[in-house]
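Researcher: I'd like a structural prediction for the single chain below. Treat it as a standalone chain; there are no partners to consider.
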Amino acid sequence: MLNKVEIDDTISKEDNIASILELAKSVCDNVFRDKETSFRIPYIYDYSIPANELGLDKKLIIQLIEDYISQIFKTYNMFHDSLENISKTIGSEKELKKLELKNLAHKNLGVARNLRIEDAQVLLTDLMNKHDDLEHLKRCIEALMACAFKLNPSYAYDVLKLKKVKDSL
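Model: Treating it as a single chain, here is the predicted structure.
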């Protein structure tokens, strides 16, 4: 969903960000609406939590969050490819494809845990453990990207715009 959002070059960057952010909030809220979570909905990330718990400077946490956003946006297609492969295979090969999805989610889960990104932890845990409901997993992937956008909308917008330019070449 966010991966396919159209960036309107006729309006300002701020207006584009506001429009995408509204969509991102809606996607996240819809996924978490009926879910038991340890955090309040809508979820708002607090940079001071990992900074205090890990004893790191807030500027470093912001940089790590930006790296996380880039990573989620880069792995978006890999997540979708894994789901596609799961839906097309049977038997033991299907189990291998599920393992690929689980490994991809696990790699990102470590970062989300370290940075205390609670909504991403829930989504990535579902991607690791709920392989029988492919529609739910698709919603989790969309929400993962939307939740990443919410962490730093201006940076995420720049990443999306750069990705679209690269894809057009």
